[in-house]
Amino acid sequence: MSAPTAILAEDETVLRAELRQLLADLWPELIIRGEAGTGIEAVQLLDRYRPDLLFLDIQMPGMTGLEVAQHAQGKCHVVFVTAYDTHAVAAFEAGAVDYLLKPITRERLRLAVDRTRRRLGSRPAELDSLLRELVGQAASHSYLRWINASVGDIVRLITVDEILYFQADTKYTRIVTASGDALIRKSLTELLAELDPSEFWQVHRSTIVNANAIAGVSRDAFGHLKLNLKGRTETLKISEAHAHLFRQM
Question: What is the pTM of this model?
């Protein structure tokens, strides 16, 4: 029997590296055919390599993990990766798939590996009913819609649709809109957990950008990626850890 193959689809570079290393320890015969940082890349790798197994983050930029799972169902076994309990327990426990909650632990991955090994000889599960339930849960998930922010001595209500980007600023986070700046006492990590990941992308450790405000990507004289915004003159740095978000642009 040939060695099993897998694709890792996870947009967080550090987490993807940790998952790769843990799999190397717990399942050394598993061959990782490719790694994807966006949903589009995941589908391309699935079509190219036709792996036995897909480790798939539910929250993926460009094309959601649920859309990728629709493409993968019946073709390979899927292990979902999620940061949200609401997306996991009841739906996954009833199906022929497994899941990992972030942060991934060695013990939980070992259990997923054992279960998946036993399933490799069977036909991959059809995921229609599971995906319908997960889509319903995702639709009911309440993302942040407005923020109370300080503009001088005034507290202003700002809808997230107005926000072009967030930027860490010492003890505060700076909010930039078309009409000006404001400050809030909330970290980027806290914001990431509350914002819709299909609309707000982290592009640097200190910056989250509204995807709808992106005009394009260019490089500076040193070859570093920078983000151009619609109707704005400033550019935003894109770190190497997040460059994969813009490979299709």
Answer: 0.58
> Which tokens is 104 given?
């991934």
Q: Are residues 134 and 23 in the same domain?
A: yes
Strand order in the sheet with 31-36: 31-36, 5-9, 53-57, 77-82, 98-101
Asked whether 20 and 8 are in contact (CB, 8 A), the reply is: yes
* Upper half-sphere CA count for residue 204 (Cβ side, 13 Å): 16
Give residues with Cβ within 8 angstroms of 164, minimum separation 6: 176, 177, 178, 209, 210, 213, 229, 232
* Span 81-129, pLDDT tens digits: 876 655 555 556 655 578 887 778 899 899 999 989 998 989 988 888 7
The domain tally of the chain equals 2
> Do 23 and 109 belong to one domain?
yes
Which parts of the chain are beta strand (E)? 5-9, 31-36, 53-57, 77-82, 98-101, 146-151, 154-159, 163-169, 172-177, 180-184, 200-204, 207-210, 214-219, 225-229, 235-237
